[in-house]
Structure formats: C-alpha cells, structure tokens
Amino acid sequence: LRVNQDEPMEDYPLKVEGGKEDDSSSGTRRFGMGQTTKDQMRTNVINEIISTERDYIKHLKDICEGYIKQCRKRADMFTEEQLKTIFGNIEDIYKCQKKFVKALEKKFNKDHPHLSEVGSCFLEYQTEFQIYSEYCNNHPNACMELSRLTKVNKYVYFFEACRLLQKMIDISLDGFLLTPVQKICKYPLQLAELLKYTNPQHRDFKDVEAALNAMKNVARLINERKRRLENIDKIAQWQSSIEDWEGEDVLVRSSELIYSGELTKISHPQAKSQQRMFFLFDHQL
C-alpha cells in the first residue's frame, strides 16, 4: 500500500548545476523533468489508487459473473436465500464501484498525474459507500454458510469449476469474498498517503483532507453498526437462555448490556438479605 516507502522524505539539499543547492521557491527538491520529488510521490499514490480500483472492479466482476451467475443456473443446488447469505449485496457494491471508478478516471490527469483532483470523488460517494455496512455485517454468515456447503464434495467441485471457468487466481471463494471488507478499510490509508504528498497550495488539498475524514467516518460507522448488531444478538441469546421469562423483551427498549454483577437485596422490616444477579442495559435495569 505505501507505494513510496523506499523513497525517504528527509529534505536533504540536492546539488544542482554550478554546485549550488537547489533553493527553489517550492522548498522541495526537483525531480526528473522539473518535477519535485513530492509531486513524483503524489503521482505514485494517484497511480496506485487508480490501478487498485481497476483491479478491484475486475475482481467484483469475476465474483458476479463467475460465481453468482453460475449459481443461479443451479436452482437444484442453491436457493435465492442461500445466495443472498453467501454473496450479500456484492452486486450492489459492484454497480456502485463501477460508477466510482469512472468518476476517478474523469479526474485523472494523464499528462500530469500529480495534478489530478480525486478528493471530490470520495466526497461524492461517501454516502453510497455505506452499503458496505450491510456486506460487512453479513460476512460472518457468508463464511458459516460456505463452510457448511464445502463439507459436501459436489459444492467443492462446483465452486472450483466456477473459478477455473472465470480464469481466477487459486484462492477459495471465501478468500474472494473477504476483499470488499478489506477494501473499505483501505481507503482511509490510501487517502492519508495521498494527503501526505499533497501541498497545502494544491487545488485538491482541501478535498483530500475532507475525503480522508469522510472515509474514516464510513469505516467507523460500519464498525459501529457491526458492534450494535453483535450486541443485539448477545441480548437475544441471553434472554432465550432464561427459563419462564416474563414481561416484554429486553430488546424492545435496549440494545446494549452495559454491566452485570451480583447485588444483595435487603427486604424490610425483617432485613432479610438475598443474593441477586442484576443486569444493567442502556435503558433499563
């Protein structure tokens, strides 16, 4: 990911013709055809963003066409419900990413890549990227369903045939399905790298800075939703483990268990004491 890690950024002075140090107004050393090293670094990051995006689109296309299409032809092996569990909303993600990569390519300056202004693309798509939340939340179910199916040989052979027909690299389907989860986490890293090599005077600076915060928020939101769903699941399991439950479900009012522990209940007037387990939820005890 860190495309420039082999090129140290210490501002050591560069000797230029006549033995004088390069003291250009930009304050950054020159590189190649009058380009500063910082510009070259920015070019590297921009190229990296565009090329990884194109690879990712191909990857999504392979999953949608190589696996989902083939699975739909086999109603004897897969129900639509099963396909929804295994692949989640990856087809929606594919549609969204196709539009996103087109937007990126429009902003790509072929002659001077370092001048490309890509920050606005991320800002424009920040709300659309929230569809990854559904995918990430569903991913554990996808893994469980796949693990169940791949205990049966005919499914193992079927998935392998899909992979070979689509000429995909030798990774199992669950490996391919992990990519969107990794992708949405990589955007803040790529944007942080881009910001590092964008001069504050650059027309893209403010947008890249805002895009970095926006994509961090998207990742945070996805994690938060995932955590909430896990908490809800825990509460439902906890309640179902209690015999003769009375009253409304805990989930009607609460979505998080905050603390649990033993308390002593003292009943007056005899001051009898009894040990009780208490559970503190976000809206009730």
TrEMBL record:
InterPro entries attached to this UniProt entry: DBL_dom_sf (IPR035899), DH_dom (IPR000219), GDS_CDC24_CS (IPR001331), PH-like_dom_sf (IPR011993)
Region (Disordered): 1-36
MF annotations from Gene Ontology: guanyl-nucleotide exchange factor activity
KW Cytoplasm (keyword) present: yes
Segments of skewed composition (Basic and acidic residues): 12-23
Primary location: cytoplasm
Name of a matching Pfam family: RhoGEF
Entry's localization field: Cytoplasm
UniProt keyword terms in alphabetical order: Cytoplasm, Guanine-nucleotide releasing factor
Residues annotated as domain DH: 41-225
GO cellular component terms, semicolon-separated: cytoplasm
Gene Ontology biological process terms, A to Z: intracellular signal transduction
Phosphoprotein recorded as keyword: no
Protein name: ARHG4 factor
